[in-house]
Design brief:
The complex is a heterodimer.
Chain A lengths: L9 H5 L20 E2 L7 E5 L12 H11 L3 E4 L14 H7 L3 E9 L5 E9 L4 E10 L4 H17 L8 E8 L2 E8 L6 E6 L3 E6 L5 E6 L6 E6 L5 E5 L5 E6 L5 E6 L6 E6 L6 E2 L7 E6 L5 E6 L6 E6 L6 E2 L7 E6 L5 E8 L2 E8 L4 E4 L7 E5 L5 E8 L2 E8 L4 E4 L6 E7 L5
Parallel strand pairs in A: 2-3, 2-4
Antiparallel strand pairs in A: 1-29, 4-5, 5-6, 7-8, 7-30, 8-9, 10-11, 11-12, 12-13, 14-15, 15-16, 16-17, 18-19, 19-20, 20-21, 22-23, 23-24, 24-25, 26-27, 27-28, 28-29
Helix pairs in contact in A: 2-4
Chain B lengths: L1 H14 L30 H7 L17 E3 L12 H13 L5 E6 L6 H21 L7 E7 L10 H7 L1 E6 L1
Classes of the chains: A mainly beta, B alpha+beta.
Chain lengths: 431, 174
């Protein structure tokens, strides 16, 4: 967590929630814009008062919380201007009910003599006039954004009954001129730190289930080679550098194995390796291309892309190899399968009339929904609570990373780096 | 890795930094420095020297035969077209003459579609060129087919002219 002390309002500066609908840009809050398409959304109205003392804090905590909650698609922010509150204020229930809030968050941040910050907050149910709990954190300045994410997670879980993903991490790759950089950032795209900088491309980062390592493909040796990279220490090791191309690493849910694509025996075929290295075991035996393995969350199956039927389609086979069944049937180009952690959904990219579109399939019914208005979608990756998808796309002629709810109604553009940004991978829940 | 690459890059540049498109030029023509990035001095430090020579976009490493080293492909195709047979034959002749020479066959695609699927398509192209070389008597252990997918376009741009230049296999010598 390295945030410059002078960075007073990173959310204001770098987080954009934007509008892609025909309705145009709708300013939904002071510091960012949000796209909401469709009607009848059930969103919880919540007021997040400015934290007392946060103008002297390097992080505007209430703004980070509000952006998180709004991006989740489950909350509607209620204007809280003109009210000075903190965690110990008696809540003026009629006032907040009149403003339409069901819940209220109030808190404070203060600098301690040792330089650390103390953050306190309390969550109120305004409808019932009930205290839903609060917390106190004492952290260095560099962890104030993490605290803000934790508070958003607390609120999200209290009010929706599900775990929030705001304190998870996302890995992605940027290309700036000839510089390729692998980043690890907060789930809102902020606090990005460089994991790897290279003059050659980096693709297909994949978080280990433990959230401590990234597998990826690097071209630094003038060919695609798969590495495993310990994020905290920066230590990396070669996983697969066989003759030909080595690519598309995918972790098994227990973190012990990695499925990947190798061309060492000719063609692009799927293999399984111990995550610690060793001899690969071949999983597929097709004349065509087999690539982009992704384990089902129970570890029993592998989704993958194959053109064995003439065009790339998504298939599923037992994780140990065996008979594959076709999963996608519509259209002639379906790639990049990403099963949701709860096993209900499969996100993937489909070429439709020349455009590459993010699709979501409900696996039990096979119902497919196209959830974007963009035309160059790539590399979907689910949030660990299965409620959001991060994906790469083009926005205003540049590459961008977006999050979307599964119904496609709430989209947010992640905080950007300079240059093109791509290849997102959403990490697991923190331990 | 930096030092190693710097040495290779420097050698490559000293021997010949021809453009990858106009390979009818003699590879020994002194074009060193042509591709130095803006702002970089000709004899500046190691960092700028590494930046100035991109082996992916640069020409031959200087060790291959004279003449073109790129085979272009049609959309969604991995068939070596008859007009590139002479390119393949030229490299086959060169490799047959010296069994110690080794070539990397680097497959590429245009920008459309997924990164990993394009990597597999580029692999198919480089393997097609490998097969063509082997058919002409080159030993299988002299060639390695690899792919860059859509990650290293020869030409930037989202139009058919750029795409046609990017669907290719480059023959590289080390």
């Amino acid at each position: 967590m390295k945030l410059p002390m002078s960075d007073i309002s990173p959310v204001h500066r770098r987080l954009f929630l934007l509008a892609l609908t025909g309705m145009g840009v709708m300013p939904a809050a002071a510091q960012f814009r949000v796209e909401i398409s469709g009607v009848g959304l059930t969103q919880l109205p919540i007021a997040i008062a400015g934290f007392r003392g946060e103008t002297q804090s390097p992080v505007k905590i209430s703004a980070v919380i509000q952006a998180n909650l709004e991006r989740s698609g489950r909350f509607k922010p209620i204007d809280s201007t003109g009210q000075t509150l903190d965690e110990s204020t008696r809540v003026d229930v009629p006032l907040w009910r009149q403003r339409g809030a069901d819940s209220l968050v109030a808190g404070s941040v203060s600098r301690l003599p040792d330089g650390r910050f103390e953050v306190r907050f309390r969550l109120w149910d305004v409808v019932r006039g009930q205290d839903l709990g609060g917390q106190v954190y004492t952290v260095p300045a560099g962890d104030l954004r993490l605290v803000s994410h934790r508070i958003a997670d607390f609120i999200y879980e209290k009010l929706t009954g599900e775990r929030g993903v705001f304190s998870t991490r996302i890995a992605y790759v940027t290309k700036n001129g000839r510089q390729h950089t692998l980043w690890v950032a907060d789930a809102d795209g902020e606090s990005a730190q460089v994991a790897l900088a290279s003059p050659e491309p980096i693709i297909s980062p994949a978080w280990s289930p433990g959230g401590d390592q990234l597998a990826y493909v690097s071209f630094e040796a003038r060919k695609p080679v798969v590495y495993i990279h310990d994020v905290a220490t920066g230590r990396r090791r070669l996983l697969a550098n066989f003759r030909g191309s080595n690519s598309a690493p995918a972790w098994s849910p227990d973190g012990r194995q990695i499925a990947l694509t190798l061309s060492r025996d000719g063609g692009s075929q799927l293999y399984l390796m111990d995550a610690g290295g060793g001899e690969p075991r071949r999983l597929t035996q097709s004349q065509g291309i087999d690539t982009e393995a992704a384990f089902s969350p129970d570890g029993r199956s592998i989704y993958f892309v194959s053109d064995r039927g003439g065009a790339p389609q998504i298939y599923r086979m037992p994780a140990g190899g065996g008979t594959a069944e076709r999963v996608t049937f519509a259209g002639g180009y379906n790639i990049s399968p990403a099963p949701s952690p709860d096993g209900r959904w499969l996100a993937y990219v489909s070429r439709i009339n020349g455009a590459f579109k993010l699709q979501v399939m409900e696996l039990t019914t096979g119902t497919v929904t196209s959830i974007t208005d963009s035309s160059a979608d790539e590399s979907p990756s689910f949030a660990p609570n299965s409620r959001l998808i991060v994906y790469a796309t083009q926005y205003q002629g540049r590459e961008a990373l977006m999050t979307t709810t599964l119904d496609g109604r709430i989209k947010a553009r992640l905080a950007g780096q300079d240059g093109d940004i791509r290849e997102p991978s959403w990490g697991p829940f923190p331990k | 890795m930096n030092k190693g690459w710097f040495a290779i890059a420097l050698v490559a540049c000293l021997v010949g930094c021809g453009s990858p498109v106009k390979l009818d030029q003699p590879p020994v023509e002194d074009k060193a420095g042509v591709e130095v990035t803006p702002g970089g001095g000709t004899t500046s430090g190691a960092a700028s020297a590494v930046t100035s020579v991109d082996l992916g976009k640069g020409g031959l490493n200087g060790a291959g035969p004279a003449g073109p080293n790129i085979v272009y492909f049609d959309f969604d195709s991995y068939v070596v077209k008859p007009e590139y047979q002479s390119v393949v034959e030229n490299h086959a002749k060169y490799l047959r003459a010296d069994a110690k020479r080794k070539a990397m066959l680097e497959g590429h695609t245009d920008e459309r579609g997924g990164r990993e699927y394009n990597l597999a398509l580029g692999q198919r192209r480089s393997e097609a060129v490998a097969r063509a070389l082997i058919l002409l008597g080159v030993s299988g252990n002299q060639v390695e087919a690899v792919s860059f997918g859509k990650e290293k376009p020869a030409v930037e741009g989202s139009n058919e002219a750029a795409w046609a230049k990017n669907r290719r296999v480059e023959v590289k010598y080390r």
